[in-house]
Amino acid sequence: MAISGDTVMAPLSTTSHDTALCIIPPVSECGHIDNLREVYDKAYGVWPPHINLIYPFVAPENLTRAQFQIQEHLKQDLKLDQHTTVELSQAGLFKQRKNSTVFLCEARDVPKSFLQTLRQIALQGLGQPSSPANLHLTIGQSESETVSSRAFLLAKAKLIPTLRFRVGALAILIRERATGSDAAPSMRLWGTVDLAAPGNEWKPHTPEFWSARSLSMSHAIEVDEEDCVELHGDANSNSVQVYQTGSTYAFDANSDNWMVSTESEAENMATNEVTIASYNVLIDSEYPPDRDRDPLILRNLLSDAAVADVLVLQEISDDFLSYLLGDNEIRRRYPFTSHGPPDQPDIGPLPSMRNIVILSRWPFRWTSVPFHRRHKGALVAQFKSVSASDAVDFVVAGVHLSCGLTDGSVAAKHNQLKRLSYYLSQNHASSSWILAGDFNIATSACTIDSALKTKSITEQTAVRLSLLEQGLNEVGLLDAWSMYRLEANSDASISEAEALYDGEAGATFDPKGNMLAADSSNTSDNRPQRYDRIFIRSQEVLRVDRFNIFGLPETVDGVQLVASDHYSVRATMRMVNASKTGGDSYVETMHRMRVEHKSSTTALSDLSHLQSSLYSQGMIPTEEQTKARQQAFEILKDVILGTVDEHNLAFSGPALMMVAVGSYALGVWTVDSDLDCLCVGPISSKTFFKLARQRLIKAQERGIRLLRKVEAKTGTMLELSVHGIAVDLQYCPAGRIAEKWSEFHDLPASDPIFNLSVLSLRKLKPYRDFLYIQRTVPSLSAFRVAYRCIKLWAVQRGIYASKFGYLSGTHITLMLTWICKRLAYDSGSVSAADIIVSFFNYYANFNWTNELLFDAFFHKSPPRYHRSAREPMVILGYHTPNSNVAHTSTIPGLQILVKELKAAIEVLSRPETTWDQFLGCSSSSTESSQRLLSQGTAKFLATQHSFVKIDIQYWGRTLAKGKSLVGWIESRCLSLVVDINKMLPELEVRIWPARFTDNEVDTVELKDYHGCYLVGLTKSIAGLFGDKEGGQLARQSLETVLDRFLTQLRTDERNYDPSTSWVDVSLSRPSEIKSLRLDDREWGDYTADMDPDSDDEEDLDDGEDVDEKPVERTLPQRPKPTATPVSTSKLRPASDVLNRLRWDPSLDPSDYIIGYEDRFLGAKETNLDKWKTEQTDEEFIPQHRILYFKKKGGDGRGELVWERMTRLDKVFGSGAGPMHRRNNL
Prior knowledge:
The chain is of the alpha+beta class. The protein has 5 domains: 19-217, Alpha-Beta Complex (Cyclic Phosphodiesterase, Chain: A); 244-583, 4-Layer Sandwich (Deoxyribonuclease I, Chain A), CATH 3.60.10.10; 604-916, Poly(a)-polymerase, middle domain (Orthogonal Bundle), CATH 1.10.1410; 929-1078, Poly(A) polymerase predicted RNA binding domain (Alpha-Beta Plaits); 1106-1224, no CATH class. Helices cover 30% and strands 20% of the residues. It is built from 31 helices and 43 strands. The strands form 10 sheets. An 8-stranded mixed beta sheet has the order 12-11-15-16-14-13-26-23. It has a 7-stranded mixed beta sheet with strand order 10-17-18-19-20-22-21. The longest helix is centred in the C-terminal third of the chain and has 25 residues, at 959-983.
């Protein structure tokens, strides 16, 4: 129907809010607008970007008529040659009750608005009078009605480039009521009214381009509890995922502008490593922008510690990005960026107040992955063909997760990580991933415990929080800092580490040390958090090589200068040639030594129950015991270092240091543990111990008693008692280390300062290993709980005594450290219960026969260790000199250990097992535990078929000799176990690591002592063989072993005195040992006479102690020594003489005899050419046991050429002054 000039149409009412007549700009021109609308416009996804000409419009049933009438009027009134261009170049706002709406509109000085013309014609077509209107395109609504909120959004709108387009048609929208309770109504394109304009102007079309956003936004609600499933599960499969691909900008030096980059791959970017840095720069004001910290941030980013290939920035504002990208050095270092400077006229604003921006030295493509919460999302940059060898593709995802420690924020973080990992899995499954940014995941155990106590979070949320990192691990993402720390490369100082709770080491958000963090902290306890992280999924292509933290506070003129509330993190990954990784020994070793993460049962998962069980068994010291041990250490330190007696400068001169080592240093000690101390200084060992003895004797009134001096494997040691606490004091002569003690903790193992003697290195080794463990164990608290549990189990099972071939504290420490570190590498944070269960499972199935146990994070390849046939079990430590910690292990001991480990994992796998049951905690203890047989001891006595009983009787008056006798017998028991196993390998031989006695009265009242050791034989000797004759032969063989062992004991004149003691070895039946009980005799403290006692460890030749007075001995078949030594000058050591006689071409080694001290038979002789120097040789004898060298003579007696006792030396002349003539040899 045509409308003539005489036709009068009834007016159409414009009162319906379900319809609208509007102009929709071209989609290609609305990118910047939609970026802001998505964040700030509540109508985003419901309405397209539009300019309403008439709204409300006509009723839906009148749309056809309205469309016709408007079309006809446009044909009549709109001139064909009229300019149809719309230009929105100005931003404005109008206030509402609770906020303000920001919009784009035409310039105020436009002489004749085409938009107003279209509105006027459309109203005429509807029969409505003309009326003024503020025609605009809505950008969004301010967060509040505050001046800063309005000004902030208005400033963003002003940065939008001028929107200029030609109008081809008017759009008629109708509201579509969606089905479903959670679905929002949206505007649908009903039809268009074409303009009679020439050209190919853009026209709206169906389907609606904003409909997908509508579906996506319909699910943009807070995450539900059931939505938090595994991170690698489907991410909201019921919603439509909308990922926006952005333009990468490159700096063009010719135009001095940032231009859209057309490059997609890195050309000629040959590199063997990639460095990623992440920095949250902090926005602390909405509007106007605070620019005071901008120079500090820029200085941090340009520092040497921040140089990177890819820089991921968080909380970037329009103002700061314009400032940053205007710096010439930034442009040079990072010529590519995900977002250009907003102040450049053709580049729009950033979408949010706090934005993620990626800068890079290589070109890349990027995609925005939106999260559920507004303003939150990830920026995923894809890099292609970046490598010096094979083409390597990897993606870098910049993240900034929701902040806070509440049930909702933790659930939101879980959902955000889930959505990101889902995107990466779907779009970059074969590439390496790097996630960098502010994860806002609370890591401080103290903070999490406080939140639980105050009910800020539920137990379920605490569990979910611990599973966040585990979920990342499950999709192959590993924490770069943790990986770097596992190799002891963390730059955290020891003093800092001691003051931190679990999860606080490596913190990047520290309210206690950063005033900006203190202002922005949202936790009550203000504990340090490791919010900023870098995770990598290497795909065996990337390997963490370096890691550092930068952007730390500085103090200038007493004022703290800090650029941000967060510190920055940087990780360097080395690229591994994918085609050659098969030959990489580190990769192979890590695959071979994988530790299965065995989860504990529900009954074992409660840490408080485990700690309660340990406390009830005395494995956790009380507060009073802790203070007493601290006091003992401080008293000894004061005495030894000379800080008490100011007049005696003997110790105040040299730079001496004293530290704790062993169980006390690690924090795993119990009340029965010794306190191990190490002194380091520039003076000789001989001088130190003489001066120490003087000081200790003078300090007796302070509760210090000197017990004895021990010459042990690691040199000289003093056994002390400080207020009843047993203390072992050792000394390391290392002057340069004492001088650089403040730097010692951070020195690499390759530093020349460690070019020390073997003795000094051996002394330092426990402390260096302790520092390594302290710096690399992921959670010291979990480690300590697990250690105490394992130790208690080992003690109760009778396998905690290395001198009997079982475990020791060092064994457990090294074994447990590897479990903790490997589990953290594969699974992130792991509970103490899971660590314990995984420990038993791993070592119960470990191939002890063919494998070495070592830390693959420290030893990048299997250590070069020559394993002898006498070492069924090899556990290696860290620093040199590297030796087998389990050198006392035996085949029967290892068999018992594996058997107990398998039994333990079987018990721990039962759903009903509790910690009290596993650790043998009893609810009733009416008698002293020292007077009762432990459960393990009772089981041992009940399960053995027969026993080898080693009896000891002592009736001497000296406690020292009685203690020495018992210690010597203990040291020989292991050889008996080995001999029985060699003779009868079918037997299960088990020695119980405790003394037994049958005395029923207090041992203090006895004039003599009677005790015994028991070696259990599980199987019947006769039952091992099918016939009676075989059983008799086996019994005879066993008797032979026992007789030989007894003979060795009784013929050792040095340790066995038949006038004051008696020993015997016999076979006993179970009925004969029923009356035995555990021996709780205390041998008491005694004052040392400073004569060295044997610790039954093979000493090393200590050149500094060769001047000490030798022990008087009577040697058979040798001339009686003179009363006065030949010389008082230093004697050349036996090793020099041995080498001279063996390698001097003018001498014949077969002409010489070596006299040496046999442990059991006294002085012995052997030909020099038969002497073994290889420690792994079964006939090896330590050189410190050499007594003399003798040249063979015709009378059968020979001539002494070197003797230790008389200091005779005819080989070098060291003992007799000038060198003798050659014919003396």
